[in-house]
User: What shape does this take?
Amino acid sequence: MYETIRFWTMSVAEYLDEYFETDVIKAALSGSGIIGTALGIHSPGTAYVLLHHYMGDVDGNVGSWGFARGGTGAVSKAIAGSLQAAGGEIRTEAGVDKIIVRNGKAVGVALDNGDELNADIVVSAMDVKRTFLTCMDKSDLPEKFHRRVENFKIRGSSGKINIALDGLPTFSALPKGSSLIHSDMHFIDSMDRMELAYDDWKDGTWSKDPYIDMTIPTLSDPTMAPPGKHFMSCFVQYCPHKIEGRDWTSEEKDGFAKSVFDQIANYSPDFKDLILHAEVRTPQDIEDEIGITEGNIFHGELTMDQLLFNRPIPGYAQYRSPVPGLYMCGSSNHPGGGIMAAPGANAAREILSDLKRPNVVPENFGDD
Assistant: This one.
């Protein structure tokens, strides 16, 4: 019991110190403890974030990750296709403006185009802040619940850059033809540099010496680019939602991109010459485009006070909201973010139970 409690409060740096001596190995592994999290490698609780990234499996290989053919959007298309095949309807470009509550019960939604849709059950996959603070009237919620949602931590800390390449870059540390180029690459080599990158975020700016988690998905899935071309996906820590409390300027976005390009170029001499186009996404861009509060990829930080029975709010961990008829199924709920559909599967089980219907949700997935 003591060891379990100790783990939940450990930093990822402390945890890795117990198993490794070499700084570069600890730096490479510690990235999984800070991804999508507004914390540094020495912050308590980041050991769990590392564990979160190693949960689940791909084809029986525990801790493995997989590529969806055609890109991650293929997962969304598969889910949409399944719904439509079952007779469901999907509306795009029709955001929810308000969840309608009458006589204390959720009865539908009003869309931002003015349409209203009535429903016996409303299920929100939006993050907890957008659901209850943006799309609901405060008067429809218990005061204590509303206050706790206001205090829910969902700070933006990660940037994303998608890069179109004219060819496959080389890396000085890899022999020609090395299969390691197919793997996940981390660009930074010491724990001190990792912590200094976090210091920049605390100062309200992007990391000038960033930690980059990079893959080249076209090596596994050539359908994502024309023949001979490649696509590079870069996940960057740290990148704030606001720059010193204000909106990003185009010049600052260019500066953020340059810091990423320079970092990769330190390890790949021909990288910059191969860049055809780059799509830069700060947390502010992510929020503006798809509505996630502060662009937080997990819909809320994975800290001990926001996990398990505390996620998203103590007393509301079973996917039900304080408003009858309204359920939550997004990553603000247990077990948190990741492309695994576990919050949605768990919410579906609870909804079916409340409707007194058989549970037809697939079982025995270890990350549910």
Remarks:
- Residues 250-265 form the longest helix (16 residues).
- The two ends are 23 Å apart (CA to CA).
